[in-house]
Specification:
- With 192 residues, the chain is an all-alpha fold.
- It has 6 helices and no strands.
- The two termini are 62 Å apart.
């Protein structure tokens, strides 16, 4: 700090006075280096102590996501065949075929939404958001499980009442995919 004396001259022209004004007797370069070192140490401490912003992936998440996707792709192909069969079927058989197709679509939309929720839970960077997504995932998995069980029951009833070999093959493939993905959904329904 520079002070103008009574004679109009700067009062701190003396190097000894400048050192005493700094308080430590060290040059400003030394103080600058020390401050930079302290700032660097503070940044390192914050880096070590604060949570790192990265996605939170639990063991089993990649396998669950892969299984949900694989099953959905397989079922989509089966559903296309079932819809084609319904469109070309005689009028008296169409209702049951469309009903089976529609019921399957509704169930597998729930499975697709589970896959979306799982992806959101994996991609989140905040532990509180991850907890919220995991809770939503668990609750929706429980609903999807109910929907899947209901669909499996409908497929069993449909197979018993229809004689077409192609239809029975499609029903069997849908049921098999539903039973296989059920294990994955049970795991998701159990997680907190």
């Amino acid at each position: 700090m520079r002070i103008i004396g009574g004679d109009g001259m700067l009062a701190n022209n003396d190097p000894a006075k400048r050192r005493s004004e700094l308080g430590t007797g060290k040059s400003s370069l030394t103080l600058l280096i020390r401050s930079a070192f302290r700032l660097g140490a503070l940044v390192m401490l914050a880096w070590v102590c604060l949570p790192v912003a990265e996605a939170i992936e639990r063991p089993g998440d990649p396998d669950n996501a892969k299984e949900l996707r694989r099953s959905a792709v397989a079922v989509a192909a089966i559903q296309r065949q079932l819809r084609g069969m319904a469109e070309s079927a005689p009028r008296e058989e169409r209702f049951e075929l469309y009903r089976t197709y529609d019921d399957s679509m509704g169930t597998w939309l729930q499975v697709a939404f589970l896959r979306t929720l799982l992806g959101a839970a994996i991609a989140t960077r905040s532990p509180s958001d991850e907890s919220r997504f995991r809770t939503n995932l668990r609750d929706h998995a429980r609903y999807a499980l109910w929907e899947l069980d209901r669909n499996i029951g409908h497929l069993d009833a449909s197979a018993a009442g229809h004689g077409s070999a192609r239809y029975l093959r499609l029903i069997d493939a849908l049921r098999s995919s539903s039973v296989n993905v059920r294990t994955t959904i049970v795991r998701l329904a159990a997680e907190p």
